[in-house]
Amino acid sequence: MLLRQPTLIQRSGRKLWCHGNPKLLDEPLHAVLCSRACPGDKIIEAIDLAQRWRAENRAVISGFHTPVEKECLRIFLRGPQRIVICPARGIDPFLLPAEWQQKFKRRELLIVSPFDSSIRRPTKQTAELRTRLVLSHAECKTIIYASPHGALSRIVAEKPLLQGAVDLPTFDHA
């Protein structure tokens, strides 16, 4: 399903484009983030965490871009919880994958981006801005793994960003 003409909303003085139910941003969201390179034991922890969150019906937010985040998304899509997906690019147009369509039709899925349609591909800069967006909307933040010297490590090290409820049970930041 090809989505066009996203809805423009204002959140905390920021323009956001979205497809789906923007009220999902008002729910207590749980962020799950992971660097692209991830040790095997952390992958197993991530899968266990995603299955637990699915059983607990936790609303989740992420970019769902890295392999570990994508695997978590596959697990969440089979559960009852609401999902907020934040691509690191504009979402006009946005090709909605078949496996997301049922949740989207039930208004349990929101695709939200701070980027207008001129941003066609993710870059390191847009990925960093997307990660900051995810963290700013999450009540609880879980970092599965942050590669040393990577962008996620640098963002996580910024204390003001992580104010509020922080859940880093599997945080590995060497």
Describe the structure.
The chain has 174 residues and is α/β, with parallel strands linked by helices. It has one domain (2-162): 3-Layer(aba) Sandwich (Rossmann fold). 33% of the residues lie in helices and 24% in strands. A hairpin with a 2-residue loop joins strand 2 (7-11) and strand 3 (14-20).
Task: Write the topology of this structure.
Blueprint lengths: L1 E2 L3 E5 L2 E7 L8 E6 L5 H17 L3 E3 L4 H11 L5 E3 L8 E2 L2 H8 L3 E5 L10 H14 E8 L5 H7 L17
Parallel strand pairs: 4-5, 4-9, 5-6, 6-8
Antiparallel strand pairs: 1-7, 2-3, 3-8
Helix pairs in contact: 1-2
How would you sum up this structure in a few lines?
With 174 residues, the chain is an alpha/beta fold.
Multimerization state: single chain
Main beta sheet: strand number and arrangement? 7 strands, mixed
Strand content: 15-25%
Total number of helices: 5
Mean pLDDT: 90
Query: Which fold name is given in CATH as the topology?
Result: Rossmann fold
The strand order across the widest sheet is 2-3-8-6-5-4-9
Separation of the first and last Cα atoms: 42 Å
For the record, the CATH class is Alpha Beta
Structural class: alpha/beta
CATH architecture grouping? 3-Layer(aba) Sandwich
Task: Count the domains.
Answer: 1
Shape: globular
The number of strands is 9
Question: Helical percent range?
Answer: 25-40%
Low-confidence stretches: 163-174
Element pattern in H and E: EEEEHEHEEHEHEH
Radius of gyration: 15 Å
